[in-house]
Amino acid sequence: MKDQEQLKRDAAAAAFEYVRRRLDDGTVLGIGTGSTANRFIDLLAPLRARIGATVASSDASAQRLRAHGIPVLDLNVVDGVDIYVDGADEANEARQLIKGGGAALTREKIVAAVAREFVCIADESKLVRVLGRFPLPVEVIPMARSHVARKLVELGGNPVYRQGVLTDNGNIILDVHDLMLAEPLAMESAINDIVGVVANGIFAHRPADRLLLAGQNGVREL
Ligand code: 5RP
Fold this sequence. Notes:
Layout: H1 4-22, E1 28-31, H2 35-44, E2 53-56, H3 59-67, E3 81-86, E4 90-91, E5 97-98, H4 105-114, E6 115-123, E7 136-140, H5 145-154, E8 158-161, E9 172-177, H6 184-192, E10 197-200, E11 202-203, E12 210-215, E13 218-221
Parallel strand pairs: 1-2, 1-3, 3-6, 6-12
Antiparallel strand pairs: 4-5, 5-11, 7-9, 7-10, 8-9, 12-13
Helix pairs in contact: 1-2
The chain binds ribulose-5-phosphate.
């Protein structure tokens, strides 16, 4: 029986094979954040000579890439991102996601928006019928914390301040419990409309293009 760590490695290895087949000298890779993305980063080292450049969705991932000798560029100096590889906290069959467990959701959303292709990697425990079991991370400007929390309660959620966490952008995270996301597109927009919200962790307007799910019998693609 494979444990979750092995399944994350399997998903990362499948993404690595996918990327390896498509690499050419100018390929710009977007690199996500979290333990599954870290497994992918660690596999990339032997390919560093063939990677044009990377952009990272967090300072932590940029640091890990550089430690492997892989160049990391600012998103503003590249013409585009060819393939973005990242994990997720939850996914549904439509490849819509909840992300942000690692507090990197805003930069992840930006890289996903720019990417021509978004490959999401996860173990199969992340697949759900309806998004919302995982508390939804919302990045908030610090002075708006109470205002945004009240508005999230009006939307039916139960926001909890993530103590001691500041994002790479200097903001705070509210984790919203008890929101069942039967209509992820509408909820993503509604939360974005709250003044003081920087971004929320629903990836429905920009879902993954490929979802590689690792299970006991191998990796399947949705
Ligand atoms: C970070 C994220 C991660 O992709 C998400 O939390 C999944 O992490 P892990 O691969 O460690 O389970 O959105 O902000």
